[in-house]
Amino acid sequence: MKKLNLFTRISMVILAIITLFPFIYMILSSLMTFQEATSIPPTLIPEKLNFSNYKEAMEAAPFARYFLNTIFTSLATTTGTLITTVLAAFAVVKLKFKGKNIVLLFMAALLMVPYEITVFTNYQTIAKLGLLDTYWALIIPHMASIFYIFYLKGYLESMNLSYYNAAKVDGASDLEFIIRILVPMSKPALFTMGILSFISGWNSFLWPILVTNSRNMRLISNGLSAFSSESGTAVQLQMAASTITIIPIFILYFIFRNQIMRGVSRSGLKG
After folding, report:
1. How far apart, in whole angstroms, are the C-alpha atoms of residue 93 and residue 81?
2. What pTM does this model have?
3. Dist. CA 153–CA 131, nearest whole Å
4. According to the model, what pLDDT value does residue 268 have?
5. What is the CA radius of gyration of the chain?
6. According to the 3-state scheme, what is the secondary structure of the chain?
């Protein structure tokens, strides 16, 4: 048993090193000179820490604008997702209506549809509405998520919602019950959904590059991709820009990791 535990620990350490090495090397490369970043065999540790690479990268492209665009659209889509998810999950858990099982079956079937298939339909819709190259094009298609609806549905089904009947006896409307009771009781799950939705919006790449054309409308991932092409062989600047883009997400995760784990563990979802 001890040998098994030792083997497990060694395996976890090896997997952790394999997983973390690209991120660590990216950060180290962002502090190298051009010669060090492009040397063969590769240099692992820079001789001198060149923090000026970050300044040059920020001056070479409008990353400040990319950050603002990404923060705004991520917050907007996260807010919209939370609102639609709460209303939909409440409806499928507590309300009784004809064809409810068919609706749930259809929604579950949509989970199997690859995202790339729906992209073109959404693009045509946004184009016909004349919303291309606007914030609306970046926000509207991501204001609802079937996955999060089932996520919250599983969370609500694990809770005692007898409060709903009590609230109805007291004359409270469904909306009052949702705002005053359901939302406070679901804070762990909603918090987890909010963080994951924000991260998804932050990392969004395919959709923004389809619906935006101007440089001022780029999100951070698209801006980083364009910068990689524009900067040519300046590998150290590309690594610096990449590091800048992931630092906010790392900070967000490490600050709220306990809340995220708590929400996942209580949601009833596994795997």
Report:
1. 18
2. 0.82
3. 32
4. 47
5. 23
6. CHHHHHHHHHHHHHHHHHHHHHHHHHHHHCCCCHHHHCCCCCCCCCCCCCCHHHHHHHHHCCHHHHHHHHHHHHHHHHHHHHHHHHHHHHHHHHCCCCCHHHHHHHHHHHCCCCHHHHHHHHHHHHHHCCCCCCHHHHHHHHCCCHHHHHHHHHHHHCCCCCHHHHHHHCCCCHHHHHHHHHHHHCHHHHHHHHHHHHHHHHCCCHHHHHHCCCHHHCCHHHHHHHHHHHCCCCHHHHHHHHHHHHHHHHHHHHHHHHHHHHHHHHCCCCC
Q: CA–CA separation, 92 vs 83, rounded Å?
A: 15
Q: Considering only CA atoms, which of 141, 155, 142, 144 is closest in space to residue 90?
A: 155
What is the mean pLDDT of each successive set of 10 residues along the chain, which is 271 residues long?
69 89 90 87 86 88 90 95 94 85 89 86 92 94 92 83 79 87 88 89 90 90 85 83 86 77 55 38
C-alpha triplet 250, 202, 220: angle, nearest 5° = 100
* Residue keyed to tokens 């606007």: 134
Q: At what angle do helices 52-60 and 235-266 cross, to 10 degrees?
A: 90
| CA separation for the pair 201, 195 (Å, rounded) | 10
Q: How many residues does the chain have?
A: 271
